[in-house]
User: Fold this.
Amino acid sequence: MRLVLVGPPGAGKGTQAAQMAKRLDVPHISTGDLFRANLKGETELGLEAKRYMDAGNLVPDEVTVAMVRDRLGDADTSTGFILDGFPRTTSQAESLAQILKDKGLALDAVVEFEVDDEVVVQRLLGRGRSDDNEDVIRNRQQVYRDETSPLLRYYSDRLVKVDAVGDVDEITERVFTALDNRGS
Assistant:
């Protein structure tokens, strides 16, 4: 199964991705992990990304897309994958579609984790990180909504919405029930 997970910061995507990957026996591919691995390994793409980051600039889509393309070329993705943190924009979604098309594949579904803003604020404040104050969290939520709404429209034909409030195992069951009901 080939899945993309979307949801606001604090929705539990990483936790759910790990649970789902184990159950489906496919890799959980986080763009954060991809960046860290490429930077640590000093790969060509990692060094290119580092140049942008050291200059205080965002890493351009083509570098991120190239990292994802490379990772999706690994043997462990042959039976599927769960992407977490990519794509973030319709441009990245189009690039992902092309990567998969070149392999004769397509996404099975896009799982959107829905969580009320107040729940996310409380979750993130509870982490106790210095960069998690209420104003910053609410701003990140608004940025997420602004950036993600076009992506959700792009994926409307593959979108599966899941209530992401509750026990971890309960939410995982909701995901698989929603995917089964969709026929994925």
User: Anything to note?
Assistant: The radius of gyration is 16 Å. The chain has a mean pLDDT of 94. The helical segments are 13-24, 31-40, 44-54, 61-72, 90-102, 117-127, 134-154, 168-182.
